[in-house]
Amino acid sequence: MALNDHRYRQLEEGEFRLFLLNPSRSGTDDPLGELLTFKIDQPVRFCVLSFLWGSRRADDQANVLCGGGSGVKVPPNLVDALRTVHQRRQSQFFWADVLCINESAINERGTQAQMMAQILSKAESIEFYLNSESNSIKRLSNYYQG
């Protein structure tokens, strides 16, 4: 099945997106979920997913499936990170900049960059994914909690 580019809904002032990762049925499925919009002051539990970007060449990009036959092209390390956490077999919200920010919308990139400290401070934890060889996630819980 050919994927269509995901169409991001324009964010209103004070909004940000989270990716709701659906549970894996087999542990080897490609990550599938949907991008949902929240107000910055809305209570929601989520994890920031940090990863090594690796190559930025278009030919090296992979897809994260966003439902409805659409996908977002992201670095392969993010797909690997999502596959790793995907095996937890429970739905969970994640924030990863390259997935949750419409990278092709310059105004949105600037606005979301200004909100990044707020977004990070709301996160329940930050998980660091190094690479597929280590196949591990390092968690830093409540790092930004005061």
UniProtKB/TrEMBL annotation:
Chain ranges of the Heterokaryon incompatibility domain: 47-136
InterPro entries: HET, HetReg/Transcr_Mod
Pfam families (UniProt xref): HET
Name of protein: Heterokaryon incompatibility domain-containing protein
Species: Apodospora peruviana
